[in-house]
Design goal:
about 350 residues; 6-stranded mixed beta sheet; 4-stranded mixed beta sheet; about 15% strand; flat
Length: about 350
Amino acid sequence: MDKIKVVHYINQFFAGIGGEEKADTAPFVADELPPLSKQLDGKLGDDYEIVATVVCGDSYFNEHIEESTKEVLDMIKKFDPDMFIAGPAFNAGRYGVAAGTITKAVKDELNIPSLTGMYIENPGADMFKKDVYIIETADSAAGMRKAIPAIAKLAQKLGKGETIGSPEEEGYMERGVRVNFFAEETGSRRAVNMLLKKINGEEFTTEYPMPVFDRVPPNPAIKDLTKATIALVTSGGVVPKGNPDRIESSNATKYGEYDIEGMDAFTEENAETAHGGYDPVYCNEDPNRVLPLDVLREMEKEGKIGKLYNKYYTTVGNGTAVASAEQFAQEFSKTLLDDGVDAVILTST
């Protein structure tokens, strides 16, 4: 029996090329299997063989998503694989997005078993857990010893066409897929048992989990705007001309903090949008349409507000994971509070 051929995808760091300074590395096929691929190959067993490792820098992939996906896919096709594995990416946001993107592309276009692994709060998890199998890992490479066996275990089942169990059994993230099964007890009895456990304060697992959304109660209204310090924050991607911090056009892994001291308005000469989810023409012509610096300066001069905070914070909301957005806000909110900001005007598109 021929071995099941596997192609592995990893980023520049796990390929041993380097860290952030090599994140702009274009896709290539490794001359020999990197240590991580060899480790995974050993865990897959004798019926499987990793025949190639494709490597791509995280920044390169995310800044050229369509082109990179095609490049990597073409490289994978040359090996005529029976299976594809990406990562694990742990909590590396750009790596997770790349791993999820290419895993979905391989699954859809090559129609072969495909999977990856990452931390539950990785942006790639939110984006792709309903499309592909994603093994849930720790948040850092310190969890590699558990991640590789878990990925290999699910890969072995997928590769041989075996029945895949529940997320709890196999270790992958919930995909929102409901499967019919025969239970020993009727639904009414199970429901009553759960109710009794709930009443008695005992632990139980619902059979119909519902999504949980944050509810944020509004703060009390500001009593006197003429004495308030107001800050500007946006998910519309308004950045200084040239996007100096290279905030991604989608799936943002960072935000920017920029000085507006003495600036009366944004212009097409000093600002633009990095956002890839809407037509940028009108924002680039007049960035105040997304982030109204001009109006706030007028209100400041007229005494309608106390003053405008001397910095603004910006990121791109297009495809950005909720966990990432929360992290951004938690970080810069501390600065705003420490500097005595009374209110924030948060704009989107």
